[in-house]
Amino acid sequence: MVFKISTRDKQDFLKWFIDTYTFESSENKWILELLLKQPEILEQVDFVKSINECPKSITMSTICSPKPEFVYRKNKLITIDQHKAYHDLRLNYKTPIYLQLNYQDQEKCPNYGFISIDNPYENNHFNRGKDKYQVDKNLNAIAQNKTIELIKEKINQSIDNDNKKDFYIYSKKLKKIESQVKN
């Protein structure tokens, strides 16, 4: 079993990202806002640190990154036209897509580290054979522990802010995840 990043966690990350970073063109922001407003599309999105060999991917770079601002790949097609990507996302929302965001200090960012996954299409000799099961098991445990830690932080924030609604939401999530860990 591979740990799946929740749509809510992806939305939280995107809200933070949009508030923190800027793009040279507004079209990149449109695409991220589309993902925020359309959870059925966002569910198909996986954030990765590398899009090598992915059949369908988007790479976006903020103004503080030296990498190309926008690249959309679909099979053999490569384009820098954000409008094509935007409309393809809307029309083909059931197809998995891999998103790589390039920004300053990305590799040090715990938010991106939490929601990003390893590229499943990239050849990684370490993850082959009998070691793959143990690696997946360990990574799932780490991810679940990090999720529990983050949810506990959100519970504490909701207590501090006297927000009963969020307290109940996050408490329920915590119970669900902790019951999954026990099984």
Topology overview:
Layout: H1 7-20, H2 26-37, H3 39-42, E1 45-48, E2 56-61, E3 70-74, E4 77-79, H4 82-91, E5 97-102, H5 110-115, E6 116-117, H6 131-160, H7 164-182
Parallel strand pairs: 1-5, 1-6, 2-5
Antiparallel strand pairs: 2-3, 3-4
Question: How would you summarize what this structure contains?
Answer:
52% of the residues lie in helices and 14% in strands.
Write up what this structure looks like:
- A hairpin with an 8-residue loop joins strand 2 (56-61) and strand 3 (70-74).
- Strands 4-3-2-5-1-6 form a 6-stranded mixed sheet.
- The protein has helices at 7-20, 26-37, 39-42, 82-91, 110-115, 131-160, 164-182, and strands spanning 45-48, 56-61, 70-74, 77-79, 97-102, 116-117.
- It starts with 6 loop residues before the first helix and ends with a helix.
- The model has no long low-confidence stretch (mean pLDDT 85).
- It is an alpha/beta fold and 183 residues long.
- It has 7 helices and 6 strands; from the N terminus they run αααββββαβαβαα.
- The radius of gyration is 18 Å and the shape is globular.
- Helix 2 packs parallel to helix 4 and helix 6 packs antiparallel against helix 7.
- It has 2 domains: 7-123, Uncharacterised family UPF0302, N-terminal domain (hypothetical protein tt1805); 131-182.
